[in-house]
Amino acid sequence: MKSKKGFTLIEVIIYIALFSLLMGTALVAAYQLIDGSGKLSTKNTTQEEGNFVMRKIDWALTGVQSITTPSSGTTNNLVVNKYDGNTITIDLTGTNPKKIEIKESTNGNAFLPIITDNVSISNLQFTYLAPTGSAPIGITATFTITKDGVDFPFTITKYIRK
User: Fold this and answer.
1) Phi, psi of 66 (to 5 degrees)
2) What are the pLDDT digits (tens) for 87-96?
3) Three-state secondary structure call for residue 134
4) Residue 61 burial by CB count (10 A; 0-12/13-18/19+): exposed, middle or buried?
């Protein structure tokens, strides 16, 4: 008798089903990796932008002689006078996307953006912290950076020591 070599129809169907299952699993895993990479990139970009803005606000509040705005309560801009005679103004400008801009009196009257076009600011608030007891005057800045429809809140508090 001759033996027939090859696969039966049932074996071929089983192999195709297993191959399809493996390819489907690999496709789902690849999609999740690509999607996760995009979300991580968004988060990193937003975190870098927020950290840069917080460093600029910290710099603006270092060596401050007086705070013009806010003098009490909460506002959406900050105006401080430094000991070197420089006046720093930080403000929220634009409509869509909104930008945080800074102006120094020593560099003329032009506002310069301190964030890129990659993100948008949905709010900016400066809150005056009145001195209580031995605690010094302080400013709390809060803002939210939006990238790809995801909001990331940031807060910094700086106390003015004289």
Assistant:
1) -150, 155
2) 999 998 877 7
3) coil
4) buried
What is the pLDDT at residue 119? 84
Residue 156: name the closest of 124, 111, 117 by CA.
124
Indicate if the pLDDT at residue 150 is higher than 80. yes
Please give the full DSSP string across 52-93, using - where no structure is assigned. HHHHHHHHHTTTEEEEEE-SSSEESEEEEEETTS-EEEEEEE
DSSP labels, 3-48: PPPS--HHHHHHHHHHHHHHHHHHHHHHHHHHHHHHHHHHHHHHHH
Q: Which two tokens stand for residue 127?
A: 């809150």
Residue 1: per-residue pLDDT: 60
- Tokens 């710099």, located at residue: 59
* pLDDT score of 143: 93
